[in-house]
Task: inverse folding
């Protein structure tokens, strides 16, 4: 990861210069100086290259003036430049800098906050997961070590960047958890990595099968029973609310199936390798806790993740089994591949009973149907609480993690009636994501709750401005923003 | 359609009788039996406390809401389906508006489609006598309801017809029959469609023995203004074409013209109640058949708009015929376009059978549609058209492709799942131009596998009452912002 530095505006004598430029405006500040220093060559070269400053546009000019490389990156129209555009521009320059050790970014005409946002975007994009590459050639590895942002407001930029850096660390933790292969990251290992949050001041409590059996987590344990790997539930507590302003905690809950074969209702082989990221909900929740604790959020937050591996075997749960959940409600298991909701059911009931939270927000790669419904640009949002919904939609829009609200209702709930138990775990193909959410709603005990189905947004098949192809860590920034807006206001 | 008459009390005829009951207000005569049957008047409750003559009590709840009252009426009609005549005893507690809602529920619940039975026909109730003290008010309220109910039942009849009876030609003929209600009907055949360049509609229909048609229905209304336009998908049968559907369930594809039927039913409703709003329906009628002439996956077709489209899957034909119909509609510079189509299986996976998908480019229009749907219990849910949905339709060879090929495991787990309803909406948006437009994907709600609250299993007529309500809410005053409407007032 490149180091980020903020320095007083001055053109570098040599090396790489990055110029973030707005659309249809003449260069100002350092960019103008650079243009003058090259005798107007810069503007002429940009014009020749068709560079207009549009959002997402970038152009590299080689050997211009004293610089080996000048990269112009578009911010869009000046009036619309906000954190999102600055982050995207920051992300966009990273691939162009992979062979360079250092670059100076002329953010002198931007407010310090946006210089920080650009540094944040670059940081997010520069992450890569190369733990398992042993033969990558030295020249193919990215060299970038340091990004220097020129800004007149060094102190303000540093202050704005510090919490963003904590959020980036949360994002990286999540991306790493999601990227790890399932033979490495099984429930026991996942729980161990949660322990790492203790150094940020998070209390971490791990429950194994014995404890969960004693409690009566029949739904979660039913899913786990086919695997050689023991299940875990991890409870993470962050007490950040100032003394005298104690509040009910905000609860975050994550689905953590470290690998999902589907169990006896086994999945088709094509694409099954992607099921290592069926723990992305839990991954996001853990990353969000790292972000929240890392920036010392002044709010009380608890996070619970249910960690299992879903395997077919002689001991595996069967279609037709009836399990008793921790809530006492019984579930007929029709499809062992609808296991996420079984895990969440026990974790959610435990959460609301033990913590009586202000609200519960669960994240889960729950259904393929949510991709059929919405595609990959929105997560599905289901909630029994309009105000909480609005806050989540706003938080997601604010950080580029968009959600789309989906319906709930009695008519859908009827689809999960069982002939033999209180409910069954699937409601058929029609409205598949909705019936999954209806199932979860039965384990909220009426408390304010929202469910984010992130099956379409947890993994990206292509590079995005601030997200390299692969694990997106969708939800980390959203949850962090939600806690900011809900827990730390006033 | 049920004949409805009104009479003042007393309700003395010896007919099977429907008695609506507000919660806790069971008539004293039936109090004892009702108690034994645990009937208190809650919504959804129904009981039969007397056999000669038959009496059916239906619960309306404490503060009767329209949807609960309609459902109560329909439930009573279903219970008394073997009676040729019914009496509705509205009593003192039920106002004129609620009485009309009950009648609407009874009429919808009495509907059956028996055109192709030759024996053991149970025709259901033919006449309803309503006993009410608010006779004139109730009659007036019913007159407003009746139009939409008749429109709905007209659509149900069309949707129920099998495809050997409802061909593109006979569908057009039945639409021409709407002329008797003051609707101007123009049916464009193959020659005119060819001349006008309707390449998409023609391509979809070219494999079938009966030719495609574009039916344009016009209701003048009472003020001169640009019309609101309904656009309907009217695939009288959809085999899928060369991308043929699996055999199982293919018989349900006779209903693939439910969008067009709903638009036609809405036009009938507007005409029957003499709506002041000018309205047009543009209905694309075709049969998607397999044959030597069928269009192929990979064909590139030129739509009426001039845009070229690469065909990926001949079973995504609905968006093609709608592309031409939408372009035709947009050319009328309408106040709004609303298209209805049984378009995608994806919308069923997304929303199931309890809501239709609502897409569009105009939030106020979409909000009005959602509100109209709530009012008449034809519920919608807004769905997104994201930038990526349109980008997915970029074609290597034409202006756009019609859908995204299925991946079958290539490209990872997620590639198995395609947001086809969103893709279809993104596709259609390109053909609606700058006009305020909304698209209702009704694939999950056009027919019901089992009896539903307002009728038996089969066609629901979804969309007719919704469109009628929308027009009543939003389009029955001239649009003072539209320059064309102002000019029109002087005509």
Result:
């Amino acid at each position: 990861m490149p180091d980020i530095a903020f320095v007083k505006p001055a053109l570098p004598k040599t090396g790489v210069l990055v110029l973030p430029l707005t659309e249809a405006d003449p260069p100002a500040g350092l960019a103008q100086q650079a243009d003058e220093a090259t005798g107007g060559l810069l503007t002429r070269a940009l014009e020749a290259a068709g560079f207009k400053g549009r959002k997402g546009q970038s152009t590299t000019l080689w050997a211009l003036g004293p610089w080996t490389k000048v990269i112009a990156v578009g911010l869009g129209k000046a009036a619309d430049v906000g954190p999102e555009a600055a982050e995207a521009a920051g992300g966009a320059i990273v691939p162009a800098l992979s062979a360079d050790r250092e670059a100076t970014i002329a953010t002198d005409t931007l407010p310090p906050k946006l210089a920080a946002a650009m540094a944040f975007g670059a940081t997010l994009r520069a992450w890569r997961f190369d733990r398992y590459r042993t033969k990558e050639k030295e020249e193919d590895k990215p060299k970038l070590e340091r990004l220097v942002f020129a800004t007149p407001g060094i102190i303000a930029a540093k202050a704005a960047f510090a919490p963003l850096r904590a959020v980036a660390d949360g994002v990286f933790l999540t991306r790493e958890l999601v990227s790890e292969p399932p033979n490495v990251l099984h429930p026991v290992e996942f729980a161990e990595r949660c322990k790492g949050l203790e150094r940020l001041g998070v209390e971490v409590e791990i429950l194994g099968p014995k404890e969960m059996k004693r409690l009566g987590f029949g739904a979660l344990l039913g899913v786990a029973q086919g695997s050689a790997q023991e299940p875990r539930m991890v409870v993470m507590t962050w007490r950040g609310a100032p003394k005298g302003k104690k509040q009910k905690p905000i609860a975050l809950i994550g689905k953590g199936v470290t690998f999902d074969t589907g169990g006896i209702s086994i999945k088709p082989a094509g694409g099954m390798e992607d099921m290592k990221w069926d723990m992305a909900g839990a991954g996001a929740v853990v990353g969000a806790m790292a972000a929240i604790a890392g920036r010392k959020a002044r709010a009380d937050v608890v996070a619970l993740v249910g960690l299992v591996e879903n395997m077919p075997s002689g001991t595996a749960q069967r279609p037709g089994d009836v399990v008793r959940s921790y809530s006492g409600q019984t579930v007929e298991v029709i499809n062992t591949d609808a296991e996420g909701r079984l895990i969440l059911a026990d974790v959610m009931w435990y959460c609301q009973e033990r913590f009586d939270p202000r609200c519960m927000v669960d994240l889960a790669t729950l259904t393929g149907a949510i991709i059929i419904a919405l595609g990959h640009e929105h997560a599905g949002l289901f909630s029994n609480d309009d105000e909480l919904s609005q806050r989540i939609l706003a938080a997601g829009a604010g950080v580029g993690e968009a959600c789309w609200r989906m319906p709930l209702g009695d008519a859908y709930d009827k689809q999960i009636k069982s002939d033999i138990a209180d409910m069954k775990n699937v409601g058929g193909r029609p409205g598949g994501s909705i019936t999954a959410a209806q199932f979860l709603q039965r384990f909220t005990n009426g408390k304010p709750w929202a469910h984010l189905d992130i099956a379409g947004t947890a993994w990206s098949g292509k590079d995005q401005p601030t997200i390299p192809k692969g694990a997106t860590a969708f939800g980390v920034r959203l949850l962090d923003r939600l806690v900011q807006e809900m827990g730390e206001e006033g | 359609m049920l004949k409805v008459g009104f009479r003042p009390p007393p309700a003395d005829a010896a007919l099977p009788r429907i008695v609506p009951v507000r919660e806790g207000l069971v008539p004293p005569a039936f109090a004892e039996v009702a108690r034994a049957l645990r009937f208190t008047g809650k919504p959804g409750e129904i009981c039969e406390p007397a056999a000669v003559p038959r009496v059916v009590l239906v619960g309306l709840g404490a503060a009767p809401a329209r949807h609960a009252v309609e459902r109560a009426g329909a439930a009573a009609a279903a219970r008394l389906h073997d009676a040729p005549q019914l009496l509705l005893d509205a009593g003192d507690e039920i106002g004129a508006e609620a009485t009309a809602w009950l009648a609407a529920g009874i009429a919808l619940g009495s509907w059956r489609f028996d055109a192709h039975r030759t024996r053991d026909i149970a025709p259901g109730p033919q006449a309803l006598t309503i006993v009410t003290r608010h006779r004139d008010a109730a009659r007036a309220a019913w007159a407003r309801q009746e139009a939409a109910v008749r429109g709905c039942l007209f659509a149900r009849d069309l949707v129920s017809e099998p495809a050997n009876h409802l061909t593109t030609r006979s569908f057009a003929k039945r639409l021409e029959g709407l002329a008797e209600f003051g609707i101007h009907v123009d049916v464009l055949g193959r020659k005119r469609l060819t001349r006008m360049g309707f390449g998409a509609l023609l391509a979809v229909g070219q494999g079938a023995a009966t030719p495609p048609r574009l039916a344009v229905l016009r209701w003048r209304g009472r003020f001169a203004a640009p019309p609101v336009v309904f656009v309907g998908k009217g695939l009288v049968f959809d085999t899928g074409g060369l991308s043929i559907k699996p055999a199982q369930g293919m018989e349900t594809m006779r209903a693939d013209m439910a969008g067009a039927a709903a638009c036609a039913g809405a036009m009938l409703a507007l005409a029957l109640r003499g709506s002041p709003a000018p309205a047009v329906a543009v209905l694309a009628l075709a049969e998607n058949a397999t044959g030597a002439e069928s269009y192929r996956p990979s064909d590139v077709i030129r739509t009426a708009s001039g845009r070229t489209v690469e065909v990926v899957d001949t079973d995504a034909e609905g968006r093609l015929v709608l592309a031409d119909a939408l372009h035709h509609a947009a050319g009328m510079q309408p106040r709004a376009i609303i298209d209805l189509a049984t378009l995608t299986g994806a919308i069923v996976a997304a929303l199931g059978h309890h809501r239709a998908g609502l897409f569009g480019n105009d939030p106020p229009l979409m909000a009005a549609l959602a509100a109209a749907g709530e009012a008449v219990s034809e519920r919608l849910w807004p769905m997104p058209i994201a930038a990526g949905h349109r980008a997915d339709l970029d074609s290597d060879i034409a202006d756009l492709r019609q859908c995204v090929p299925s991946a079958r495991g290539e490209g990872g787990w997620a590639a198995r799942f395609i947001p086809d309803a969103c893709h279809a909406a993104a596709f259609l948006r390109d053909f609606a131009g700058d006009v305020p437009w909304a698209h209702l994907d009704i694939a999950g709600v056009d027919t019901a596998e089992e009896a539903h609250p307002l009728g038996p299993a089969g066609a629901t007529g979804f969309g007719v009452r919704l469109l009628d309500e929308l027009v009543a809410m939003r389009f029955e005053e001239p649009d003072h912002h539209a320059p064309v409407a102002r000019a029109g007032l002087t005509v």
Summary: The CA atoms of residues 463 and 469 of chain A lie 4 Å apart. The first strand of chain A starts at residue 3 and ends at 7. The interface with chain B takes residues 267-275, 368-369, 371-378, 404, 406-407, 409, 411-412, 415, 429-435, 455-456, 459, 461 of chain A (CB under 8 Å). The first helix of chain A runs from residue 29 to 37.
